[in-house]
Amino acid sequence: MSHARKRRLFSISIFILVLLLSVYLFLHSAIFKADRVYASGMVKVSQAEILALAGINSGQNIFAVDAALVSKAVQTHPMIKRADMVRHLPHDLEIKIVERQVWALVPYQNIMLFLDDEGVCIDRVAGVSIQDYPLITMDLLPERVNLGQAVYPAAVQQIKMIWDSMGEERKNISEFHYRTSSDEILMYTQAGTEIRFGKMERLDEKLTYIKAVFTMEKDMKKEGHEALEYVDISFDGEPVMKTKV
After folding, report:
1. What is the pLDDT of residues 31-79, one digit of tens each?
2. Are 100 and 81 in contact (CB under 8 A)?
3. Coil/strand/helix, residue 7
């Protein structure tokens, strides 16, 4: 390599180094200090709670704040499902919040657990109406359930998948029951029929059978016949059903 080329490469290297250093110093200068830190998207959680968890100091350089750590810290709040920090140049930091929403109720001792669609407990309330939410009962619950604790999240998500797939027909369901020992789901209709759903395989086929049960219940009621006791669709093959004696 010629002497001139070496000098040219050295000059380019120095230029790049100086440029990177200049950019670094510019981004970490007082120009980008955090004059305003705020949260958005909350309904139930206060600004003060979010900012306390975020732990961002006023005047801190916005590029020196670790967005991932801020998000992780804020998401420790039991009501927060997701938190994302966004930089608004030159002086603002926004923490965008997605709160957890009640999706189902689970009877627990003398109260109701409010679970979101991931099975996370976000509240514990006595004397609440179950009219607007799916009711889920379980064979076995932990001795203590704290706010922010997940309660059989896989089961809750499976039940939500069934619920969402049923559309308007879900108004005919009064309760879901999760057998914790066998990881199976039972459903109870408003007419009192037990539907032994089983595991999550063959979902479309099982939904067709469930809709047929609702139709059968209506027909039996019109004809004055005894209601169904149970319908077993947990296995591959034709459903097994029994009427009440």
Report:
1. 668 889 999 999 989 999 999 999 998 788 888 899 999 999 999 998 9
2. yes
3. helix
Q: Kindly state the helix (H) or strand (E) to which residue 155 belongs, with its residue range.
A: helix 153-166
How much is the pTM?
0.78
Residue 25 pLDDT = 46
Supply the pLDDT for residue 57. Answer: 82
Residues 103 and 119: their CA atoms lie apart, in Å, by 9
Query: DSSP letter string over 47-58?
Result: HHHHHHHHTPPT
Task: For 191-217, give the secondary structure using H, E and C.
Answer: CCCEEEEECCCCHHHHHHHHHHHHHHH
Report the alpha-carbon distance of residue 234 to residue 185 in Å, rounded.
9
Give the burial class of 171: count Cβ atoms within 10 A of its Cβ; 0-12 exposed, 13-18 middle, 19 or more buried. exposed
pLDDT in tens, 123-177: 888 766 666 789 999 999 999 999 899 999 999 999 999 999 999 999 999 999 9
- Looking at residue 83, its amino acid is A
Long-range contacts of 77-82 (CB under 8 A, 24+ apart): 77/45, 77/49, 77/50, 77/53, 77/148, 78/120, 78/121, 78/122, 78/147, 78/148, 79/44, 79/45, 79/122, 80/45, 80/50, 81/116, 81/118, 81/120
Q: 190: alpha, beta or left, given left = phi > 0 and alpha = psi -120 to 50?
A: alpha
Kindly list the distances between the CA atom of residue 168 and the CA atoms of 101, 172, 173, in Å, as whole numbers in the listed order.
Answer: 21, 9, 10
Of 102-111, 138-147, 222-231, minimum mean pLDDT range: 222-231
